[in-house]
Amino acid sequence: MRYDVAIPPFFASAAAVEDKLECRVLTDFAELEVLSTDWTRLQTATGKGEIFQHFDWTAVWWKSFGKDHRFFTLIVLRKERIVGILPLALIGRRLRFLGYNVSDYNHFLAEPGEADAALERCLDTLRGHAGEWDEIQLENVPESSLLAESLRHLPRVWQRSIVATPGDPCPTMLLTENKHEVLKSSMDKLKRAVNRLRRANVLIFRHIEDPAEMAAHLPQFFKQHIRRSAMAGRRSGFLDHDYVSFYGNLLDRVGVDKVIRFSVLELGGQPVAYHFGLQYQGKYLWYKPSFDIDLWDLAPGQGMLWHLFEHQQTAGIEEFDFGRGDEAFKYRFSNHVRRNLNFTVYAPGYRSAIRRACRRVRETTKTLVGKSPKLEQAMKQTRDIWRDTLFLYRRAGTKPAMHKILRTSGIDKEESWVLFIDRSTSGAPSPREQDATTVKPISLGGLADMALTNPGILDEQALQKARELFRQKLSAWVVSAGGQEEILAWTSIDTELTAPAGKIELPDKAMIVLEIWPLIFRTKRKNYFNLLRQLSSTANAMGLTMWAVCPKRFLPAEDVLRGHGVIPKYRWVRSRILGKTRWEQHEFG
Question: Are residues 438 and 302 in the same domain?
Fold first, then answer.
């Protein structure tokens, strides 16, 4: 594929004319439904085909997402026999595959001997509609597919208007030879995780076969996926109504007995992992997994994968396809890697030429950075320094207007006080204060839910930090005022307080507030104070004393604290310049 920036001529190639192929543009999905038999014939013309090109899959996608798209599919005929279908839809001024956002692989449906000429005829026809679109995005095209080959064989007039870029790798496990040995070897890598789950409680794996039961499990499956996506810094598709309805519509049209393999892993009767898989023409596709992030350390996702491998021992499949994506775990089990390609076809005109030029510069820059490990590492380190600095200031509740300054300065200095809350004099909050401010424990899953409403504070970095604190056996408490979550506090129960500034031996076992994260900007100081008093009441009920490490900026004056039985004991000062941190500790007189 050539990357020259040029505007193609406005004439059709001689090859397409001489082949006497006719191309029509369908603008209503009902027109395509009439041709479903021809669609199926072309889908299987070059082999077994993919589930993503099954007509039912396309019909379900259009039913779920069609309202935001304009149908724009091309069919190519030779003497009234359909020899090619290019399934496209128009969104804005961009043409994309039908099913582009739910399909791992996309194809051009054509008879093998007609594919090159049919694709060229489609593009020539689209050129006649150039006023309606700016670019055609042909994404997730397998590199060995008929479409990829046909795009390479296009005449130069079209090659010049196409930009090809690498797509996602697609690891897979081929099972045509030594199937049982390959699967057993993969299962051995997951045995420890399965044994850990079995020790925790009764473990049951099953495929849900009743459509009604499957529909009942979908909301929990969606919830797990949304939370797991938040932990990875991604936005789950299940936050969109159309995406949710797509899965429900799949159950109605495709059917469980034909393609869908919806699996659940239950621990003590509770679902801890799901997998929405697809089995079609001898291939099992790892399509949409989820697991309960509150049980992350038990590795329920690995337990699900182990049981899926076990099930495939007796299933009639020849391939376990992990789909597109370069997640590290896939390479632990795959024995072959395919790759997708992405092609962008630009419309004639100077604006498209400018976009092609910018795209080429962007791709060239990415390639050059990738070829220089030192440059790539330096850019990542610089990014991490600014990201860490921004995270610290967001957590400290700095006003949004200061972020631009802080991101470029890389400077941070903060003073924290180590406080002892004397339960004999501090007293419990008044009923009015308790009504205004509530303090409740929260899990990692709850934090992932909160991240949807606090993306600037609880981003991927903050959630990963939270997971690490949970692994250290800390407890999380969320403070709400007026129905709005405002503060997140992290506590432990110990006899000593250990921090970079020093180690403090406590007189007895205590509840210790180790970290405080604001969840909104401009949180009132009294809410931090109420947090300490309410947690002190909780500690008192447990027969514990109460200590806290709290940034000075969140606290009232020292005399006010002492008047309420909150006694400052130590002062910690943290200085941070360009990623380097220094701590100092001082005692109050």
Answer: no
* Residue of 238, 1, 44 whose CA lies nearest to 138: 1
Looking up tokens 């003590």, which residue turns up? 268
pLDDT for 523-577, tens place per residue? Answer: 777 788 788 888 888 888 888 989 998 888 888 888 888 888 889 998 888 887 7
The gap between the terminal CA atoms of the chain, to the nearest Å, is 75
Q: What is the 3-state secondary structure (H, E, C) of 377-442?
A: HHHHHHHHHHHHHHHHHHHCCCCHHHHHHHHHHCEEEEEEEEEEECHHHHCCCCHHHHHHEEEEEE
When pLDDT is cut at 50, 70 and 90, the band that residue 15 belongs to is very low
Q: Are residues 87 and 187 in the same domain?
A: no
Q: Look at residue 213 and tell me if it is in a domain.
A: yes
What pLDDT is stored for residue 403 in this prediction?
A: 46
Give pTM, 2 decimals: 0.83
SS3 for 531-553 is HHHHHHHHHHHCCCEEEEEEEHH
Residues 559-570 as b or e (16 or more Cβ within 10 Å = b): eebeebbbbbeb
Is there a domain that residue 384 lies in? Answer: no
Q: Both 234 and 288 in a single domain? A: yes
Both 145 and 195 in one domain: the answer is: no
- CATH number of residue 509's parent domain: 3.40.630
User: What is the tally of helices (H) and strands (E) in the chain?
Assistant: 22, 23
Structure tokens at 150: 């046909």
The model's pLDDT over 409-464, given as tens digits with 9 standing for 90+, comes to 556 677 888 889 876 655 555 555 555 678 899 999 999 999 988 777 788 888 99
Same domain, 299 and 354: no
Domain range spanning residue 183? Answer: 177-317
The answer to whether position 382 is within a domain reads no
